[in-house]
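Report of the visiting student (M.T.), summer placement. My assignment was to run the structure pipeline on a short list of targets and document each run. The first record concerns M20 family metallopeptidase.
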Amino acid sequence: MTDRPPIDPDETVDLLQELVRIPSPYFEEREIAAFVHDWLDERGLNPAYHHVSEPEITGYEGDNVLARLEGSDPDAPTLLLDAHVDTVRPVEDWEEDPCSGRIEDGRLYGQGACDMKGGLAAVMVAFEALAERDLAGDVLLAAVVDEEGPYGLGTDRLVRDGYADDCDAAIVTEPGPVLARGEIENPALVLGARGRFLYDVTVRGEAAHGSQPERGVNAVVDAGRVADALAGIDVGSHPKLGEGSVCPLLLEGGSQTLSVPERARLMVDRHVVVGETEADARADAEEAIAALDLDSEVEVGFREAPSPDVRYGPYVTDEDHPLVTALRSATRSVAGVDPAIGYFESVGDFNYLGDRADLPTVILGPDGENVHAAGEFVYTDEVVEVAEVVVAAATDFLG
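After the run finished, the structure tokens were exported:
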């Protein structure tokens, strides 16, 4: 028989439905942040807004919502619960309102239902339940903005302003199995993630009349050759995270006038594993390009960022860490089975916590399908189960 913490399934799904019905594409989270703040405030959980500003590149202004439960022992650990409130922008192929929150056959539909309003609902009700317990350690809830945007500004600001400094471990309630390496199913603990660099490559050729291409140097043609060369880079490998990957994403240059293109720009995604640095990534690209012996001049850079440390570094959390042990035990108690162990293929706020903040970080979230696409849904029973596991594990971990 399982020992289920006091989470009300109906109230949890009702909360999820309310969250999904609030449109919240990244950079447009004001309404949902206010909802989360008010929901916590109505329950006496003392939320506060934490301002997020990035004026130089995006001009973004927004607010995380933070709340803290203070434990009885200052020497006990502090646990961070992190969930983002934003979604991708609704895609055009929806055949119903992308914020409908429709429930059918145990699935709740809507843009962001799985990524990650299911996890947000789970962590909110878990936080409320933990407030009723006598804990030795603290719990910090962070409902953050702009995870889906270009820089993860909400959790970046959380780390930058020192909120992670006194934390000892983190749970991020992202959907794990849907983007994990290999085939795993919930209940699952995702204990690490690959990192990511985004090459921004400039190719400078020489203009000429398009009827005499031999008199110029075609930057678009050479950029295509660069894209092909970068796609063939030897990537790193890791026993937990698997292999890295390279994927050209964008090539732009030239015009409709009858001229040999003299400029082109190429952006290439590179996912990396533990042990691969930015210097390694740059050197690999420059070596591959040098071997082409192009007539164009090629400059390898990386995507512009608000600060040099705004990067998605890879990380792995030890399977023997006390938080992982607590989550294993909680999963057995709640679900009656041992959790699967997996590792994330891509990047997210968890990289900022696991790498930049150096926190043992576990991804534990409800699964679904069609993430970032039309027909996205989350399994409602998994939302409830994740909340129950978080409560049981946090109670164990914090004492």
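DSSP finds nine helices and 19 strands in the chain. The first strand starts at residue 48 and ends at 54. I thank the supervising group for their guidance throughout the placement.
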